[in-house]
Amino acid sequence: MALKDMEKRDLIVRRAACELRDGYYVNLGIGMPTLVANYVPAGMEVILQSENGMLGIGPFPLAGTEDPDLINAGKETVTELAGTSYFSSADSFAMIRGGHIDLSILGAMEVDQEGNLANWMVPGKVVKGMGGAMDLVASARRVIVAMEHTTKTSEPKLLKKCTLPITGLKVVDTVITELGFFRLTEDGLLLQELAPGVTIDQVRQATAAEFKVAQGVKTWQI
């Protein structure tokens, strides 16, 4: 049975949250990746950073408890944790460009088999610019892309070569979709895990990129 959009996103962000580690400084990209804030494992200290100048973001607020002055880079209301700090965007980008972000989890419109990323130019829409994505993919110690495996018209988003304007060349380390968990290796794209109920054939049918399957590929458990 096909998953609904919200079910796909929940599956993806839950698996992405499994990549968090105690003490990490993490930036969550606009859109689906921001939901990872709701799934930080209990007892783990992860410091979430936002480009607009906030360090120490908590889970999304419950309805009726929102503070309109507390927002992330996507203008969504967020909560603060004990010890949260605030600073200018200039300081925020100095933090990013200085290599102090352990992990960046971003969305994408396209990723190709070489680890190239396209996630800023929306086809047919006017955009102001690339924003912080260029800095994050160039400076974060690890870049995870969390995205749906295909477009709304069922076209693959994992490609042999990106067709949209590039955000960064060979910057992606990991891709997580509702179908599987991929790593970029020296030998190319490697499928390491399958999502629950998914077969390798289903992944191949939905993927334009060439990829290898890890020996003993397993189904992830969340």
Describe this structure in words.
The chain is α/β, with parallel strands linked by helices and 222 residues long. It has one domain: Glutaconate Coenzyme A-transferase (3-Layer(aba) Sandwich), CATH 3.40.1080.10. It has 4 helices and 13 strands. The protein has a 10-stranded mixed β-sheet with strand order 4-3-2-1-5-8-10-11-12-13. It has a 3-stranded mixed β-sheet with strand order 7-6-9, with no helix packed on it. Strand 12, helix 4 (200-205) and strand 13 (211-219) form a beta-alpha-beta unit. The two termini are 19 Å apart. The mean pLDDT is 93.
Compose a concise summary of this entry.
The chain is α/β, with parallel strands linked by helices and 222 residues long. Helices cover 16% and strands 27% of the residues.
Keywords:
222 residues, alpha/beta, Glutaconate Coenzyme A-transferase, 10-stranded mixed beta sheet, 3-stranded mixed beta sheet, 4 helices, 27% strand, globular
